[in-house]
Amino acid sequence: MVVYPKLLASAYATIRVLPPFNQRRWHLVSSDIQPHSKGFLSKIFAIYNSHFDRVLFLDADNVPVRDPSYLFSSTEFTTNGAVFWSDFWHPRRTLFNLHGRSMLWELLDMPFVDMFEQESGQLLIDRTRHAAPLELVYFYAFHQPNFLEKLELVYGDKDLFRLAWLKLNAAFHMILAVPAMAGRFENSSFCGMTMVQHDAKGEVLFLHRNQHKLTGERQEEVRKESTAEPEAALGAIQSDEYPDPVIWTHLLSFRKEADVKFYSIDAYRATPDFPQWQPCYGKRYVEKQKLFELHEFANTSFAGIESDIRHFAFEAARLRHSREIEWIGAHPSNTTEGLNFTYD
Q1: Which alpha helices (H) appear in 207-342, and where do they start and end?
Q2: 192 and 101, same structural domain?
Q3: Total number of domains in the chain
Q4: Where in the cell is it found (predicted)?
């Protein structure tokens, strides 16, 4: 996990919902970090320089609904040494031009691969088994001049991992279950604000809150931009003290029996039901969809998790403002497995 100030509340909340790690937190605070290893590339820098042999990397706004440590002993990981997750996008519907006509394949000197793009909000990698593809990922990210970036052939880091593994014919498992979406359902209009990822059995595991991040604070400047009333910008006034709005009322999933070649996600704005500034993903009018199904979040086994993370984000904001945050622990020099936390 790479954390910068804006994501402290999200990171704090994610860490607090991981009970096995509550007493084992390692962090690295360092000014000796390459100037260009910021933004998306900081993820690659952190994994490449991790002291762990086996790493589960999570984006700071990515919340597991249960202890994810079982992934380390899963057949998919022990067999392949790497587990990746797919994005919404694929060559038939892509926001990033990753299709058969892209110059990317010629530049990387490899044939076009018809598969889902990668979503790197979670990565499970055995660094000892996959030292070579990690070196190639690092090269793709930091070699100058960086034509991948200059020609906008990829977006950030998200596909660099699978491209490096494919280039070297290294083993990896891509989770077969396509992403679902968590969001709000208002006036027959759905707005997905969180990417939902599954484990190998198709069970929900990660809620990547990438379109509406936790802050633990009231964002009056954001509310003023909304065309809706300030308090109703993303639903009704909350009955608790936590300032972050509830955005997980429904889960939109692709039907398990449906053919994934028909999986297609829309990116849209859903005014006037949702603020103009709020990006939405999924299908706005669910009743017209035969391939997707809508479920109430309250009926899931992890229904209470949003209350928990909103509470922890609020707690993080109060701690930060009172200057009482104290990160404790030492970065281990031994080889083990776990979550890698890097704070900058």
Answers
A1: 220-225, 305-321
A2: no
A3: 2
A4: Endomembrane system; Golgi apparatus membrane; Membrane
